[in-house]
Amino acid sequence: MIRWRPDRVFPVALLSGLALALAFPRFDVGFLAWFALAPLFAVMERRPFGAGFAAGTAFFGVILYWVNIVMTTYGGMHPFFSGVAYLLLVFYLALYFGATTWLCCRLRRLSGIPFWFSLPAIWIAAEYLRSLLLSGFPWASLGYSQHNEPHLLQSADLFGVYGIGFLVVFFNAALASAWRGWREKSGFSRALRPLLLALILVAAAGGYGRCRLSRPLDERPRQLSVVLVQGNVDQSIKWDPTVKQATVARYRQLSLAAAGAGETDLIVWPESATPFYFDFREPLLKEVMAIPPETDAQLLFGAPAYEFKEGGVRYLNSAFLLSRKGEVLGRSDKIHLVPFGEYNPLERVLPFLGKLVQGVGDFSPGVLKPLPLEAGTGGVLVCFEAIFPEIARDYVRLGCGLLINITNDAWFGRSSAPYQHLAMTRFRAVENRVWVVRAANTGISAVIAPSGRITEATGLFETATLRSKVGFGVHPTFYNGTGDLIPLLLLGCSLLVWAGVEWRARHQKAGPGRGAESG
Questions:
Q1: Which of 181, 380, 396, 460 fits as disulfide partner to 319, beta carbons 3.0 to 4.6 Å?
Q2: Can you give the C-alpha Rg of the chain in angstroms?
Q3: CA-based angle 409:414:415, to the nearest 5?
Q4: Is 244 among the residues known to form the active site?
């Protein structure tokens, strides 16, 4: 019989984490996700917490290497402190892996719950918890590894990204169970049952996707002609007052040229495209407001804003919509702010951390506010709001027939982060069966169909425009109706089962002692 020595556990766990990272952009070897975690699950009993923590450290260490680019190149942080902050983030996220493997091992030891049963539920519960705690950071949830698998991607309209992640973990756990059964030379046929069930579920998901793709998912009765403008303004000079005029001139020239190529309904500029606060006293704002009449199109653009409220000033990361006549139709404010990027959540404890973006004061969160497009209302996802399924879902439930993601991924440089960001945004289109248009300052700008298909896309760090016809309107989905109810239930059930198992274990342990005393 082969037995794993304790010193082999951590190398295997690290390799599992590294292999899993390769399933995500830019490596994008998506099929690896179906096998990468099996070695970890096979050896984790030797080091229930340490094995998962090691795998999580390797995974997030590779996935989030670009954090150092943000902090040093644009945040001005010393490389040493940047490295410390990066490791703290990686270790924090690795705790979710470690806690998952520890809890599954404990449930198996105390109550015999098999790994193939507990791992998928607890893993997804942990991912959902990660999207909530400390303002939430659901970057690189496991299901996103399948963004390039069109047939599997379609089931996101049933259970969202967490449903696909559940399948991936289940398959890995079933593989590990089958391997353990073969290794122990006993109960091998019984150990194959979970693997057979996993294969059936994966085949069902693929069949569902094939059936969905055979229908005209991307067609809508109403069409909009949209122009996306990628200004490609270098982040190092973006907020330099001496280049404001050149920035507005670049966006104006690109917009006029693209709109002149054909009838245009909507022009979209990226997040903070105008490097000044929206203020009618700003001379350059008048030039921006003159563009819609010149192009005969609505214009949506990102700009910082401020408002006086309760005796103070609130600063907002906003998107403004102008009519074809240049009138202000509405403003949508960013709801989910980036911790340490747009505000300091630990200002009272660690005020020296400051923020990594330029601008006056901390930003404040806004509220859901659809904007009145000519065909109906549209929802704006500012920057990394696109990685939060609930925000897109809420906009669609408010009647939005188009989702518009404006972002400035220049912070990420030429790293894998822009590709990861786009991959996650694709899920919002499928979950809600709605078109998504994405304008990014330096790329990747893209048009995403309700099937998750990218119909148009730009490259990184190129000055470009995209013209595209997009459908307006949504098709009801199971996910849009229920949201993340299943991950929430898995989280609640996991905690309840854990509490029940612990209570029973303590009760059984204390029972004989009490009996001896009474005798």
A1: 380
A2: 25
A3: 85
A4: no
Among 105, 127, 238, 334, which one carries the catalytic annotation? 334
Cα 63 from Cα 67, distance rounded (Å): 9
CB 337 within 8 A of CB 355: no
> Which residues neighbour 503 within 8 Å (Cβ) at sequence distance 6 or greater?
none
Catalytic residue among 127, 271, 385, 431: 271
CA 471 to CA 373: how far, in whole Å?
A: 13
Tokens matching residue 69: 């680019």
User: Is 378 strand, coil or helix?
Assistant: strand
- What are the pLDDT digits (tens) for 100-134? 999 999 999 999 999 999 999 999 999 999 999 98
Tell me whether residue 185 is one of the annotated catalytic residues: no
| Catalytic residue (one of 104, 105, 383, 400) | 383
- Count other C-beta atoms under 10 Å from residue 192's C-beta: 15
Please check the confidence at residue 356 and state whether its pLDDT lies above 70: no
Place of tokens 């950071």: 137
- In the chain the domains, ranked by start, together with CATH numbers, are 6-215+484-510 (no CATH), 222-480 (3.60.110.10)
Instruction: Tell me, yes or no, if 383 is annotated catalytic.
Output: yes
